[in-house]
Amino acid sequence: MNLQKTGVPSTVWVPLPSVETDWQRSLSDNWSGNAKTMRVGMDAKYGARYLIAEFDGSAPPVLEVTSRVQTRDRATDWSTSTASHEIPDDLRQWMKPTDLIPLDGIVRHTARQIVAGARSDVEKVQRIYDWIIVTTYREPKVRGCGTGDIKAMLETGNFGGKCGDINGLFVGLCRAAGVPARDAYGIRLVPSAFGYRELGGNPASLKSAQHCRAEVYLRKHGWVAMDPADVGKVMRLETGNWIKDPDHPVVAPVRKALFGGWEGNWMAYNFAHDVSLPGAKTGTLGFFMYPQAEVQGEALDPLDPDTFKYAISARSISV
């Protein structure tokens, strides 16, 4: 880690994997460095965990964080179902608005238009998924994973973005249609076994591999994996040409697989929105999957390597 300004107090917040599900186990976290204090903080609402490292400026900051997780591939068997037909009370938070995902006004209106006449939650989600793939597109010029301001996307009609925008819009429309949904904010770890270059990460250098995915809760299937944003990524970047036909032979397998499934070559940090980091002077974060830093109360841009340099890498461990 390298902060542009040295010799002055600084604070760094590093997200830690905080997800315990049937598709990921967050096993352990270890850290070392020359910070004056290092401690774990946690978001009270969503349970997102993070390391807080405070440096006094007496030496250039050094911090190394190591996390161990287990992940697996996911694929929904649509031919089977569970006995549950009601939405449990503890899932109702995934039907509520956030700062970047309002559920009234144009969001609700758009969702109702898309799902009009749908007879089940599966049909609602399928319609929204297809609408996202046809309407939105990957915009490489957007910084990072985007801002996730879904109201602005709908009001302006500018549907270009990245995963934070596109999957955020998918989640918002699902919630507005009455289906519990959430974004999972994380990072790609290794290449894709699915055979697509754009769906994997280079384990030696993962600094720009952050990626959010989505889940929906279906009454007969429980939590189900979704990732329409990655369908758009394949359409825009997988070949030398921008593929605009979602039924193109390159796209069709991804479109099918990411409705109800995803690969385990990716790790989730958290499901958190509107995160307030303790001690930070720059307000809340819409989502938290990039390291954050402040120098003398001034926030550094985690996407600007000239002011905030850090490296992320991964390796597989046999168990």
Please tell me what the overall shape is: globular
Sequence of strands across the biggest β-sheet: 4-5-2-15-16
H and E order: EEEEEEEHHEHEHEEEHHEEEEE
First and last CA, distance = 30 Å
How would you summarize this macromolecular structure in one to three sentences?
With 319 residues, the chain is α+β, with helices and mostly antiparallel strands. The chain is 20% helix and 26% strand.
Explain the overall architecture.
With 319 residues, the protein is α+β, with helices and mostly antiparallel strands. Helix content is 20%, strand content 26%. The chain has helices spanning 105-115, 121-135, 150-156, 163-176, 228-237, 252-257, and strands at 2-3, 10-16, 24-33, 37-42, 49-55, 63-71, 74-75, 137-138, 160-161, 181-188, 210-218, 222-226, 261-262, 266-270, 292-295, 298-299, 308-309. β8, α3 (150-156) and β9 (160-161) form a beta-alpha-beta unit. The two termini are 30 Å apart.
Relevant terms:
319 residues; alpha+beta; four-stranded antiparallel β-sheet; 6 helices; 17 strands; 20% helix; 26% strand; globular
Describe the protein's topology.
Layout: E1 2-3, E2 10-16, E3 24-33, E4 37-42, E5 49-55, E6 63-71, E7 74-75, H1 105-115, H2 121-135, E8 137-138, H3 150-156, E9 160-161, H4 163-176, E10 181-188, E11 210-218, E12 222-226, H5 228-237, H6 252-257, E13 261-262, E14 266-270, E15 292-295, E16 298-299, E17 308-309
Parallel strand pairs: 8-9
Antiparallel strand pairs: 1-17, 2-5, 2-15, 3-6, 4-5, 7-13, 10-11, 10-14, 11-12, 15-16
Helix pairs in contact: 1-4, 2-4, 2-5
